[in-house]
Amino acid sequence: MKKFIVITRTFFDADVKDKVFEISKNSMPIFKKQPGLISIRMHVENEQLQTLTYFEWESKEAHEACMQSPDFADWGAAWEGLVASGKIKWELNTYEILDEFIA
């Protein structure tokens, strides 16, 4: 199986931290029911003003279908509002696994 990895990084101002965590927490059940999702790991850095989320998908197509899902309409609108406010910066990078080592 050729897995597809998506890593997002979110940088945010302290005054919107609670909102970012709330939106992230509320989006997890939506992600978890998407076909082709293998796992999600969300990390927060020590200062708690940055998150890194690691999504593992069965395929690139599964990830793309998820991004088009109407299940995210409310979540997406809230997220876009924060981005538009300038209080957060967000980046997304995608990867295919070349080799995998499991201890």
From TrEMBL:
Molecular function GO terms recorded: monooxygenase activity
**Pfam families for the chain:** ABM
Q: Which InterPro entries match?
A: ABM_dom, Dimeric_a/b-barrel
Query: Which residue intervals define the domain ABM in the entry?
Result: 4-75
Could you confirm whether the keyword Metal-binding appears in this record? no
Alphabetically ordered keywords of this record: Monooxygenase, Oxidoreductase
UniProt keyword Ribonucleoprotein, yes or no: no
Mind telling me what this protein is named? Antibiotic biosynthesis monooxygenase
